[in-house]
C-alpha cells in the first residue's frame, strides 16, 4: 500500500509539473489570475469548429462553471411560469466532466423582485470548490456549502433574512473566496457586514468588515501579497479596501468612488501595482507600499463621459484587464480593445475587431503560454497575441450562441443578446454555458 501511494503521488506531481491536467476550481481559475498553464493545446481551431464532447440543458444565469476532480459545477435559475421572472428556483448542479450527465442537483426557492427585471436571468457568481466542498452565492443572497460528491447541504445562510443583507440592483455577483479555514463572501449585511468571513466547515461567522451604507458592487475579492502581508482586496462602490484576511481588520482604504455602482471587473495586481477600471469612472492605477500595508494613486484617468472618443484610457465593464510587460490590455466602454502604458495610462493603440462594438462590449481573457484565449460576448472564441505594437488575432471560431438579453435592443445599433459568462479551461477542454445549455469542447492539439 505504501508503494502504491508513493507511485500515485509521483504521477500526480508529474502531471502537475508538465501541465498535463489542470482543474478550474473557481472564478478565473487558480488564484483568480486568469492563467491556464496546460500544454498540448491547439495553435489553431479546426475548420469545422471545436469538437463538442457533450451538451446538457440548463436554465438561466450569468455564472461561469467551476471544474474540480471530474465534476463540473454550475448554478442556474428556473422561473415560475405564472410569475414570469419574479419567483422560481435557483439550483446548483454537479455534472460529470467526461459525460455531461447530471450527478446531483440542489435547489432552493427565490424571489427576484428586488432585481432589475431586465437582468433577472439567474445566478451571477461562479461556484468555488475547495476539496470536498463547493460554495455558491445566489443572486439574492442565498449561500450554500455542499458536499461536492453528493450535494448534501453542509451549511447555508439566507443573508437577507438572517443578516438584513442589501441586494444590489443587478444581483449578488461576487464569487466566494476560500482562504485557509475561512469562506469569504460579499454580503452587504447590517451592521457593518459588507464582507463576512464564515468558518468554511461549519458556516459560523468569524468576522465581518466594512459599513453597509452602500452597495457591495459586483467585483470579485482577491488575495494578494504586499509588504510581507497577505491582503484581501475588496473593491466596492465607495472605494478599495485592503483587509487582513484572518481578522477583517482594515489595512488601508482608498476612497475611489465608482459611479452608478458599476464596480464589476476584477482588480489586477502586477508587481507593486494594483489596477482597477470601470464603465463611468475610467481607470485607476495604484502603487502598493512595499514596507507596510498601504497604497498611493499613481494615475487616474476619466473621460468626459463613457462614450468614445471621450474615453482616453479604458472604461471597462465586465472585462478584467491584462497587464503584461508594462502594458495594459482590455476592452473599453463600447467594445474597443485598447493598449495603455501601465506607467502613465497613455493610450498606445486601439482595435475594433475583438469584441461586439456596442455599449458594454466585453470579453473574458485567459493567458496560455505566450498567447491569450478570449471569449467575446457574441459567443466567439479567439486566440490572440497582445503586444504594444499591435493587436494580432491568430484564429477565431464560433463557440456558443448568445442568449441573454443585454438590456438594450436594436435601437442601440448592436446585438440585443449577449453571452456574459466566463468559461472554465480545464483538462485541455473549455466548458461554458448560455441560458439554454452547458457544453464541453476539446482544445487538445
Textual characterization of the structure:
The longest helix is centred in the first third of the chain and has 17 residues, at about 1-20. This protein has about 450 residues and is mainly beta. The protein is globular, with a radius of gyration of 21 Å. About 5% of the residues lie in helices and about 45% in strands.
Helix residue percentage: under 10%
What is the CA–CA distance across the termini? Answer: 36 Å
Most strands sheet:
4 strands, antiparallel
Q: How big is the Rg?
A: 21 Å
Report the sheet-strand fraction. Answer: 35-45%
Strand order of the largest sheet: 1-34-33-32
**Integer average pLDDT:** 93
Number of beta strands:
34
| Tally of separate helices | 2
**Shape, please?**
globular
Uncertain residue ranges: 4-19, 409-414
Structural class: mainly beta
Amino acid at each position: 500500500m505504501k508503494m502504491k501511494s508513493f507511485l500515485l503521488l509521483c504521477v500526480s506531481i508529474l502531471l502537475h509539473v508538465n501541465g498535463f491536467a489542470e482543474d478550474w476550481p473557481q472564478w478565473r481559475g487558480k488564484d483568480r489570475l486568469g492563467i491556464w498553464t496546460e500544454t498540448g493545446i491547439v495553435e489553431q481551431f479546426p475548420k469545422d469548429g471545436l469538437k463538442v464532447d457533450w451538451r446538457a440543458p440548463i436554465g438561466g444565469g450569468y455564472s461561469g462553471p467551476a471544474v474540480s476532480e471530474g465534476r463540473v459545477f454550475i448554478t442556474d435559475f428556473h422561473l415560475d411560469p405564472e410569475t414570469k421572472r419574479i419567483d422560481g428556483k435557483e439550483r446548483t448542479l454537479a455534472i460529470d466532466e467526461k459525460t455531461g450527465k447530471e450527478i446531483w442537483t440542489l435547489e432552493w426557492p427565490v424571489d427576484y423582485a428586488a432585481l432589475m427585471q431586465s437582468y433577472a436571468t439567474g445566478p451571477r457568481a461562479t461556484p468555488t470548490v475547495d476539496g470536498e466542498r463547493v460554495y455558491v452565492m445566489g443572486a439574492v443572497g442565498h449561500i450554500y456549502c455542499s458536499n461536492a460528491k453528493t450535494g448534501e447541504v453542509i451549511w447555508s445562510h439566507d443573508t437577507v433574512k438572517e443578516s438584513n443583507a442589501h441586494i444590489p440592483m443587478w444581483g449578488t455577483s461576487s464569487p466566494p473566496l476560500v482562504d485557509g479555514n475561512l469562506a469569504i463572501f460579499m454580503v452587504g449585511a447590517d451592521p457593518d457586514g459588507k464582507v463576512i468571513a464564515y468558518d468554511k466547515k461549519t458556516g459560523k461567522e468569524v468576522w465581518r468588515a466594512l459599513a453597509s451604507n452602500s452597495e457591495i458592487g459586483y467585483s470579485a475579492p482577491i488575495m494578494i501579497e504586499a509588504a510581507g502581508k497577505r491582503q484581501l482586496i475588496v473593491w466596492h462602490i465607495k472605494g478599495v479596501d485592503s483587509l487582513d484576511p484572518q481578522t477583517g481588520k482594515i489595512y488601508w482604504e482608498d476612497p475611489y468612488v465608482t459611479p452608478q455602482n458599476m464596480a464589476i471587473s476584477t482588480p489586477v495586481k502586477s508587481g507593486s501595482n494594483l489596477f482597477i477600471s470601470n464603465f463611468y469612472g475610467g481607470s485607476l492605477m495604484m502603487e502598493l507600499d512595499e514596507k507596510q500595508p498601504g497604497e498611493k494613486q499613481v494615475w487616474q484617468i476619466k473621460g468626459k463621459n463613457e462614450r468614445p472618443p471621450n474615453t482616453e484610457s479604458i472604461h471597462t465593464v465586465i472585462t478584467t484587464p491584462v497587464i503584461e510587460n508594462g502594458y495594459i490590455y482590455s476592452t473599453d466602454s463600447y467594445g474597443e480593445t485598447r493598449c495603455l502604458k501601465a506607467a502613465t495610462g497613455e493610450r498606445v493603440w486601439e482595435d475594433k475587431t475583438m469584441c461586439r462594438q456596442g455599449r458594454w462590449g466585453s470579453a473574458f481573457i485567459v493567458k496560455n503560454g505566450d498567447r491569450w484565449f478570449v471569449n467575446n460576448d457574441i459567443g466567439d472564441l479567439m486566440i490572440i497575441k497582445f503586444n504594444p505594437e499591435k493587436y494580432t488575432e491568430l484564429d477565431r471560431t464560433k463557440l456558443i450562441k448568445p442568449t441573454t438579453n443585454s438590456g438594450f435592443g436594436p435601437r442601440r445599433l448592436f446585438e440585443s443578446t449577449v453571452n456574459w459568462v466566463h468559461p472554465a479551461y480545464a483538462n485541455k477542454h473549455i466548458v461554458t454555458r448560455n441560458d439554454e445549455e452547458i457544453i464541453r469542447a476539446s482544445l487538445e492539439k
